[in-house]
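Appendix B. Worked example

We walk through a single record from start to finish. Start with the input: the chain for TonB-dependent Receptor Plug Domain, Flagellimonas flava, length 924.
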Amino acid sequence: MKKSLQFIMLLVGMQLGMAQDAIPRISVSFTNVEVLEALNTIEEKTNYRFYYLEEWLEDVRVTGSYENMQVSLILDDLFKDTVLNFYIDANNNIFLLQNNQIYDALPDDFFGEEEQLADDGPSYEDLEDLGPLFVTDEDSGVSRGMPVVKIGKENRNNRQRTFTLSGKVTNLRNGQPIPDLAILVEGQDIGTSTNSNGNYSLQLPVGENIIRTQGLGIQDSRTKIILYNNGTYNFDLSESVQALDEVVVQGNLDRNVETALTGVTLIEVEKIKNIPLVLGERDILKAAVTLPGITTAGEGSAGYNVRGGRTDQNLILLDNGVIYNPSHFFGIFSAINPFSTGTAEIYKGNIPAEFGGRLSSVFDITTKDGNTQKFSGEASIGPVTSNIVLETPIVKDKSALLVGGRATYSDWILRTLDDEQLNNSTASFFDVVAKYNHTIDDKNEIKATGYFSRDKFSITSDSIFDYSNRLVSLKWDHKFSEKTTGSVILSNSEYKFGIEFDGESNDDFDLGYKNNETEVKLKMKYLHSDKHKFDFGLSSKLYVVNPGDIVPLGAESDVTSLVIPEERGLESAIFASDSYEVNDKLLIDVGLRYSFYAALGASSQRIYQDNAPRNSGTLVETQDFDKNEVIETYGGPEARISARYFLAPDFSVKASLNNAYQYIHTLSSNTTVSPTDTWKLSDLNIEPQEAYQASLGFYKNFEGNKYELSLEGYYKQQKNLLDYKVGAQLLLNEAIETEVIQGDGKAYGIEFLMKKNEGKLNGWIGYTYSRSFVKLDSPFGEERVNNGEFFPSNFDKPHDISMVANYKFTRRFSASANFVYQTGRPVTFPIGSFSFNNSEFVFYSDRNKFRIPDYYRLDLSFNMEGNHKIKKFAHSFWSFSIYNVLGRNNPYSVFFVTEDGDIKAFQSSIFAIPVPTITYNFKF
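Next comes the structure step. The output line below is what the pipeline stores for this chain.
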């Protein structure tokens, strides 16, 4: 029977072939014309007549030139980039169809008659046509009210059984991407989740699929997708009013248990508005300090110490551009605008292979995309600062601009006070950020960010200090295929400071310092399969450091002009990583980064005697290098290995091992970070820093992720840490290598975090036990500290406890508390005095032998939100807080003064009394 049918079909085919030869051929040409005009032209030249629905042809334009071609071939080419199909009957009628096709014959196996396939399965050539696709009635009970979307168009010659559906999921209210949204296919074991940019990709069987989306704070949705071939569909989803109370506390469920990386912290930007902080400022980085493993040297100090590392070992990125000093006014305020921030992720354990150049951590902060739907904004008014962020669409649904600014009016407050000394003081800062995001098409997107911050202060009447950060970055995201995406990133960052001294003597001066870096980076992602996800790329960064210059201020100044020669260095790297899902329990993330650094001229490098201390007496020669000539090279492989193993569905163990190189160092003799700290590049005399870290952790969730519990330990070794000799002169010193020494470091600790995500009472308790030591040993006494033995670093604080609690009385009223306890940091004390040549001299202890008193502080706040009416111009938020409720006189530093032959100790504090604050926020 089947062979007879095949013979008949062969005869019919021969007849159709002969009839095809009789079909007229025409010559036509179209250049970006409406498809309706093209169809009318074909009708005029032939006896064909077209039948269609006009709405199918709206906004469809075609281009093509055809000589003596059959109409069917012309239509094939005209419609190749559309969802239009066509069918020609025996009466020269042409019926246009959208997505699907008309079949005038059933496939051979339609009634169940099909040949047996070989045991090894069909080859691509053996697969027969799929035949017509049948879908359920749109008015059936299952799909009634469900949107139906057809993707692509049916092609009877396409033998694929599965196709790729991809797209982006955005918030309908503000156009922001929705990360970590579950996308599931009903009735099938198929699903995925959106990435940080809201993008997703699914392999689906051809035909009908019901797609369901689920996400915290987002209304569930069901969409019937009829898939004919590869295509794109973007979801615009609404927020869930019923889940608004939980959006703040339940983001990224299971993330702590499921990911392979150790020591990763995600700052939920929206949640920090409830944490009471100094002067009512919502502060991303201050919120990070409440989490285990991240500390500061003291209240009011800039910089952050992560797992026993120095402040210069943290890479702080804002939209891929480096910020060297992320603080305002000595660390009291953060320089990152919280209203413009989208995500903030901190890597303190296994740093991904794409990041390099720092040993301890990466603060990866991303500015949120502007609202492409409508004009919106957020603002706050506080006792010392005000903040505003505005978002406006440029091209609706495609591009938007975000602009934010923050400033203090502390100068105005100081001028109103009666104290003459305060009247002459200056303390002001501001920062601005702007971001433009533009979706060119479904494969290309660009984002550009600009940022600038500036601080200016005068503690004494004769000196004015100022420092600033500036960065610009440009990112182009491109989708090469359903599995391959890439990004090209270009960024430039600059940090500079200045001191203007105008005193009563003739030593007035103007001092300046600046460093600049420019980086280009290519980053690729390849989704090989469900088991392998590859990241790879390369980067190159040019450092240009101006170590400082000083010029006389005024004609009567006796100061001699001095310019320290510029330093240049090129740091390049190639990296690759694979997230390999071995099985349902074991996930391995393995990465390798190879970094290469070259110190570049123009420069004069001093050569010293071997086996001798570096000083003017051991100088052998000075070697000159031309511009861009290679002075010295360093580099090596950096391994990034981590693994996660499920002991239970909600209980995992993770381990990691990594190493890193750092080619830039800070020069500081201060206990805490100062705006006048300078940076030094590795060169002929100063080697790069190195670090090796191993960590092991256990992560457990309870009661459906209501509670999170984690315990993680680490051990870190460091080499070539840059420190200073006793009495070193670091600023404006051309022979800086004679004032510094390099040594070893080690750090270890245990971090405990217990977090409650749900309920009226939520928050976390974090405890860290950590130690950090430095060893500065040398055969020469002037280069040896504390007899060459390990001693505590400036930021060694064994015990650190933080507690953050929020209690919701109602949906509008809540209270929050923040408690901090830290062991006092190490200091060096004078332990005696002696006379020499009729002069009194102070004799100091070993470096960091003593500690200042322990630090503890309690903050409280009461928060009141406006009503939650949807149709309202702006939603308000009041915060009434008290910083340092207990009035604890926590010491910031300890200093010593000799009076009448006696040495007297004094301690300084930043906030020694309770500080009440009222802040008003509104969002529209």
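Two observations about the output. The longest strand covers residues 532-552. The radius of gyration is 34 Å.
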